[in-house]
Amino acid sequence: MTHLNQTPSSSLAKPVEVAIPCAPDRGITKVWELRKTLDRPCDDLVERVLLSRNIESDSDGDKFLNPSLKMMHDPSEIPDLDKAANRILDAIHKDEQIVIYGDYDVDGMTASSILIHIIRALDSDNQVRSYVPHRLDEGYGIHSDAIRNLVEDGAQLIISVDCGITAIEPALVAKKLCVDLIITDHHNPPESLEDMPEAFAVVHPRRPDSKYPFGELCGAGVAYKLAWRLATLHAGREKVSPYLRTVLIDLLGFAALGTIADIVPLVDENRAIVKHGLSQIPKSPNEGIQALIQASGLDSSKVDTEDVGFRLAPRLNAIGRLGHSAEAVELLTEATGQRAIELAENLSRMNEQRKAQESAIVSKAVEIVEQSGLIEKGVKAIVLADEDWHPGIVGIVCSRLVDRFARPTILMQRENGMCKGSGRSIEGFNLHAGLEASSNHLLSFGGHDMAAGMKCDETQFEEFAQSFMSYADTKLNENDLVHRTRYDCVAGFEELTNESIRRLDKIAPFGAGNSRVRLRINRLKLNGDASPFGKTGNHLSLRVGSIDNPGICVRVVAWNWARHLVHIPASAPIEMIIEPVLSTWNGKTRIEPVLVDMRVV
User: Fold this and answer.
1) CATH code for 373-480?
2) Distance between CA atoms of 398 and 417, rounded to whole angstroms?
3) Closest to 255 (Cα-Cα) out of 231, 283, 227
4) Helix (H) and strand (E) counts for the chain?
5) Which of 35, 100, 328, 517 gets the most CB atoms within 10 Å of its CB?
């Protein structure tokens, strides 16, 4: 793939010797696995990485490295989307009261905001409003009582975002009350059309009858496709007015926020949404987004996937976990001036509270697991409940336990005779299917293969836990329950140059389905002791040399690795998995890889 190089390189098929392990190796923290054994090895590092990700042709490489908005699929191919768009335009024309029924996470917030902004762009006088269920009082999804209350308040068209695909009863309630309900969702759909809600329209890229070519859109992605179609139908042609085009481009920022936060694969059109949406966030005219950027302490000139995942999204999610997400939707749709600043600062305060509670729950849950000896007993899933665990926070704690114990994890709060909580899974285990198999012990559940929420009567908790753990026992083996890190290919320090790392950076945006580039570097030697650094000495700085090229010495940064210092003897021969990084300080750029894992040879 000579298009990747500054100058033409040798043929992709040119054989070179690359040291590829035949079996997994054990690092200090995880089992190492090669992404893919290259059947067409080559001598160009970037090409080897792309090959490891099954990007083999020149055209696929160009498309991947330079994702264009032109690669986005026709929204009309999503079932019922045109039907929904025409109904919304009719409601706008008739000045009907439109309510966007959202969800309390970032995906739901941004999806709600996208539709609110596009409807107001089509009719600046439209009084479209949002409804977000309270996470603790109502729980996830569309609720029949909420539908009744909205209709009583004058709603004439209700549009769900990021929820509704299982809302059988609420759809019947809406039908009985003679209000049209449009469902837009991306969560696991039923297997047959007969089991779908009887709504006016059900917009879902993975409906049983869908031929849409990409099924991994998040809720905000589906909402964006609907917004796009609203604009073209309103214009009466594919080319919209300059004003609407500007609106759609700006809304890519909202879609990118939802896509990253919901951890859907950053491939295909999700890649285009995030690539172009990230560039819109810093320059968004939305005062709420600008206030959020400032409250997050970010550089307002550039925002990347890590900024969204670790700064912006947690602040938006925090209000949904500890308060009411209506404030976050207000920030993204209504707030200006001092109100936007106040809301953004409140989200930051909530996030600090969330982190404190999360830390306490993690400590308690880990203590229970370790003292009960669950891991030693060979239990393949963790299911726990406690009176003091906040149901809005247990989901993120589940992720921490999955990272620690490599097992599907469900944590719930016991309160007033009920247990409510969330679960997170590991690769290869369908959490949603596990809940389905145990559904006779649940009052409600919903979500993805990797993340879900559930509720049961407290008297059914033990039966549910046993049922779910039994299901996991039949689906998982011991090899599934180990921490793993996958690397793209073997490389040498001599291949890491400023230019090659800049080219590797073009593989961004990184996230689910497109992880950061990881390289295995063999035949290395530590030059002296690893040196702790940072305010609390949590990090390590390692001077690493090449055994085969004694003139090469590189500083490798190991974040939060101080606890492993005892396992790293001075001057030891080692192998590493690293992420190639360029570090700039005082105007000087240098190669400074980040350690993922290492082993002493």
Assistant:
1) 3.10.310.30
2) 22
3) 227
4) 18, 22
5) 328
Query: Is 0.85 topped by the overall pTM?
Result: yes
Distances (CA, A) of 404 to 14, 400, 435, 567: 42, 6, 22, 19
Q: 260: helix, coil or strand?
A: helix
Amino acid present at 103: D
User: In DSSP terms, which residues pair with 414 in a beta bridge?
Assistant: 419
Are 218 and 240 in contact by the 8 Å Cβ rule? The answer is: no
- Which residues is 201 bridged to in the sheet? 182
Mapping DSSP to helix (H, G, I), strand (E, B) and coil, where does residue 22 land?
Answer: coil
φ, ψ of residue 435 to 5 degrees: the values are -70, -40
The answer to whether 287 and 344 have CB atoms below 8 angstroms apart is no
Contact 488, 514 (CB under 8 A): no
Q: From start to end of 35-123, where are the E strands? A: 98-101
Per-residue buried b or exposed e for 5-35, using 16+ beta carbons within 10 Å of the residue's own CB: eeeebeebeeeeeeeeeeeebebeebbbebb
Query: How many CB atoms lie under 10 A from the CB of residue 204?
Result: 28
Radius of gyration of the chain (CA): 25
DSSP 3-state of 49: helix
Phi (first) and psi of residue 572, to 5 degrees: -80, 145
Residue 20 pLDDT greater than 50, yes or no: no
Query: Which conformational region is residue 472 in: left (phi greater than 0), alpha (psi within -120 to 50 degrees), or beta?
Result: alpha
Length of the chain: 601
Question: Who has greater pLDDT, 434 or 376?
Answer: 434
Residue ranges per structural domain of the chain: 2-53+488-600, 75-242, 373-480
CATH superfamily of 2-53+488-600: Nucleic acid-binding proteins (2.40.50.140)
**Which comes out higher in pLDDT, residue 411 or 22?**
411
Handedness of CA 421, 396, 318, 287 (dihedral sign): negative
How far from 211 is each of 79, 185, 215, 340, 578, CA to CA, in Å?
8, 16, 9, 41, 40
- CA angle 107-112-114, nearest 5°? 95
Q: What is the CATH number of domain 75-242?
A: 3.90.1640.30
Amino acid at position 118, single letter: I
SS3 category, 485: strand
Q: Which of 130, 123, 117, 119 is nearest to 230 (CA)?
A: 119
